[in-house]
Amino acid sequence: MNQDYIKPDNWSIIEEGFDAERVKSSESLFSIGNGAMGQRANFEETYSGETFQGSYIAGIYYPDKTKVGWWKNGYPKYFAKVLNAPNWIGIDVEINEENLDLNTCTEVRNFRRELNMKEGWYNRSFEATLKNGTEIAVNVRRFLSLDLDETGIIKFDITPLNKDAKIVYKPYIDAGVTNEDANWEEKFWEPLEVKKGTNEAFVTAQTFKTHFKVTTFMHNTIMANGENVNISPSTIDSTPDKVQFTYGTIIAKGQTSSIQKVGGYTVSLNHDNTLAAAEKTIKAAVNLGYDTLLQNQIEAWSKIWEMSDITIEGDVKAQQGIRFNIFQLNQTYLGKDSRLNIGPKGFTGEKYGGSTYWDTEAYCIPFYMATKDQQVARNLLTYRFNQLDKAIENAKDNLGFKNGAALYPMVTMNGEECHNEWEITHEEIHRNGAIAFAIYNYYRFTGDYSYIPEKGLEVLIGIARFWHQRASFSAAKNQYVILGVTGPNEYENNINNNFYTNYIAKWCIDYTEEQIKKVAAEYPEDHKRILEKVNLTAAEIQEWKKVADDMYFPTSKELGIYLQQDGFLDKDLVPVKDLDRSQRPINQKWSWDRVLRSPYIKQADVLQCFYFFEDHFSKEELKRNFEFYESFTVHESSLSPCVHSIQAAHLDKMDMAYTFYLRTSRLDLDDYNKEVEEGCHITSMAGTWMSIVEGFGGMRIKKDQLHFSPKIPKEWKGYSFKINFRNQIIKVAVNHNETTFTVDGDQDLTIIVNENPVTVSKFMQIN
């Protein structure tokens, strides 16, 4: 059974009723972020029940020493972790000398959470009876400002219901935090300085080893019935890593007492003096005030939704799912800083270390290219260019490669490999291909070729050199092979000739050669600069080409399919439909040995190749491969349903496409994988967007033109989306009778709809 407590709503994520068993899951689902920082939906007040405390700052990490039973040569020395950042949201509350703690209240009524995605705020409300008999109504609203992105705001309202109340607020900031997933139970933060003012406080701490300096700050205002009561704290308690103020107030029954807390972080990534920056940030936020900050937040999110929203008519759960995905993607990354990237959990949890994976290039870049200015996607590409030297070092030190061959890390924060599973770190090398594909995809979509001569060609050359050296010549096959790899299907390790890996290796070499020729012809100065810098010769390129031209691809002529790898048909080929449901998910029920010997596929592998290179294969080839491999796919990766949804739609398997869409869009809301309490699956959310735009909308870029082949699930009345294609905004609206294309601007645009060219002016309707 999937969880089903989230109420269907077009624009909000809503939970009604307090259940301690759901607290950690809801902490993930109601997370908030603004691209610079984020936090799980932990309670501000004391909570003695089970909780997963988590606040995070973009770009701040710690190199947690790798913990393995048997050290192998080439293991990364550390696993980078996004750090649980100092806590700025904390507000202990006493009411008539009783701590407010939902875990100990005698009764909790009308509990409700709402994550308002349209306006960008999180609200929690409830009524409670404390052990001392005092009854209260509480409403708490929190948001992280998009405009002042180092700032968060909390408004905590308490109304006594059955008697007058003495309310004591104890807001604090605390750098004495730890990570749940620490390998060695180390503390990651070293306190440096505490500063206290009348209603504001600062704790400056730095990370051990990496020495990121962070000033955590707060400013507090106590109010009664919406008016500032202008009181100062009665006491100020502090330790080297914590400051806590105490404010005592008396409020009459039926009246409302409030604390407004401004807090957040200033970091050494952006400021030389983090304390001075924090003081300046508080001043800016306080001068604007809560109401203006909230209004600015609503307007900022309105601008984001104006471009990125997808509407679905007639299916509230589908609508809620896609907006949740789009909302979380925008909370996680807004493209302002090329030093930052998109972690698989974003700001919602610690799993996967918050690091960069190939997910960014394979799944996220299309979303950001189409819904934002192209500079955002270019920043993601620049992130990899800036880490090219580390990728070359990685190939040299860990694989013994030479001559500038580059292996980008499977997991990274700063360009260094920090994934500590051998079969992933050194065998899942297909990630190199996704990085090259993203360069191609960026140019294909934006038409901006300048990135390749400026930066991209150096990356492509390093990757081509890697594939040339990683392949080996098989005398028996009289072809080049790639041995000992893990494909996208991580349920098979150390296999030979993974089709997707071999195919993308060949493509990378061919594409790099094409770009070298194009840059030579059109950007001769860049061509000369690059070839001299990397010491590339025509003879070396010819050696690459031998590998690409004679690459081996495992196939089954009998079945008319490409084999996922050598020997795949030797497995006991029992399809997933015949697998006992009690054995699912197999990654939690089976030994790893049993998983590896099985035919079961975690996510698209051969089909990932068909997704990237659809034009290289016929529709009939896709159909045969899809029907064969989908029958063995258990979809135990968040990245799996979206690719299958796109391909099912392309093959007119609309019921299947819709089922996969619901699974990818509501993966976390319905907790398909029974792990949402660890955080949400942020990078796969970009795949959800692709399921609609590329799946149902059939959007493709072919020969510099936009193509569409719109389809609509029978469950929907209609849907619409926008894309920014080469600085022209195209809105596509589809229902069961017609498709409407609108161009925002005076320039005409020729698109291909169902293989027919159509010139779209200001407004065009196609039946």
UniProtKB/TrEMBL annotation:
Residues 14-268 form the Glycoside hydrolase family 65 N-terminal domain. Residues 699-760 form the Glycoside hydrolase family 65 C-terminal domain. Substrate binds at W358, D359, K602, Q603. The keyword Lipoprotein does not apply. It comes from Flavobacterium araucananum. The keyword Hydrolase applies. Belongs to the glycosyl hydrolase 65 family. Residues 323-690 form the Glycoside hydrolase family 65 central catalytic domain. One of its GO terms (molecular function) is glycosyltransferase activity. This is Family 65 glycosyl hydrolase. The active site is at E490 (proton donor). GO terms for biological process: carbohydrate metabolic process. Coiled coil: none annotated. It holds the Pfam family Glyco_hydro_65C. Keywords: Hydrolase.
